[in-house]
Amino acid sequence: MRAPTLDLTLLRTLVAIADTGSVTAAAKRLAYTQSTVSMQLQRLETQLALTLHEREGRRIRFTSEGGRLLVHARRLLALNDDAWSDMQARQVTGDLTLGIPEDYASLLPSVFAYFHQLYPAVGLKVICGTSVHLVEQVKAKELDLALVTRQRNSPGGDVIRREPLVWAVGVDRQPLLSDPLPLALYSPGADVFREVAEQALQAAGRNWRVAYTSQSMTGLAPLVTAGLAIVVVTRSMLTPALRPLDESSGLPALPMIELALHRAPHRPSEPARRLGELIREQLAAPTEAL
């Protein structure tokens, strides 16, 4: 009689839930819907005829059986990933240049680590710049790929993800929300965030003043956390030092922005194609409420 075989896809879901602590976060990591993650966990329990988890509010707590399986799951996945890496490393070589805005670098550490694990013979170079400039570099074939905020005056690229923009202030300090509103904005032409914020305020009949400008959030953050200005960011750009403002602030609602992956105007190299696939898998998870 053939021995039962554990499904690695289900085990990877189990590990993602353990690492993130919730179905919502696991779905985001795996680029699945929450219902898919829940069903995969249920399938694993059905196959083993065991209860592997219990809910504690929004968190997941593993039973003793779930904890034991988690140890085996990590070992099996590590062996699988090592075998895949060994086989792929002999097939994919070359150099690859990716452009990203500095503010999006925090979205991709796991992608970079996994890409290097799979393709250690590929030389990856990452260049940071404004979205507008990076799109121009891709068109000029100076970059193989660029992950950018889609700009109104430079459409194109494959939309990877949509994110809501929010107004944010320092977690401990904030300015008065009366006119003229003190804003920390990207430099003119650096990104669509500034244009969107100013149009929303103008439509709402609000007055504002530009208290600080920079090419990236790194330059804007000190003034915002000091409580001297309001900034516009995506939810993924929020840090523990920033607090989003809700509708009770009286500020106008902001639209969604699109993250787009641009490719150089020629047939992509194999390294570029594979990195593009990994970026899409990592960032394409839908935003859902638990």
Automatic annotation (TrEMBL):
Top-level taxon of the source organism: Bacteria
Ranges of residues in domain HTH lysR-type: 6-63
Entry coiled-coil feature ranges: none
Transcription is among the record's keywords: yes
InterPro entries: LTTR, LysR_HTH_N, LysR_subst-bd, WH-like_DNA-bd_sf, WH_DNA-bd_sf
Keywords: DNA-binding, Transcription, Transcription regulation
GO molecular function, one term: DNA-binding transcription factor activity
Pfam families in the cross-refs: HTH_1, LysR_substrate
Family: Belongs to the LysR transcriptional regulatory family.
Full protein name: Transcriptional regulator
Origin species: Halovibrio variabilis
